[in-house]
Fold this protein.
Amino acid sequence: MKAFFIKCAEKVPCPCCNHQDFKVIGSRERKLKDERGMARTFIIRRLRCQQCNKIHHELPDLMIPYKRYAADVIEETIFQTAHLTVAADESTIYR
């Protein structure tokens, strides 16, 4: 299976202290399901803030923290403008 490496091009401030100096301390795999139910693997960087020492993960716009489905799939489920094309159980969609 192919994994995609994620690296942000812009400087984002720390959500805790608003400082912009991070040190890369490693990476981890993150799986994400698309609208067909296919899981894709991404490698995201782990960053440590140099001021408050908190660890953050660098997530792209297509990922929502603590969710396993892509952002566009979750959006489609919430707004339900047309027939759902999401490959998920009804109980998962309900939650």
About this structure: The chain has two helices and four strands. Residues 35 and 78 are 14 Å apart (CA to CA). The mean pLDDT is 84. The helical segments are 71-79, 90-94.
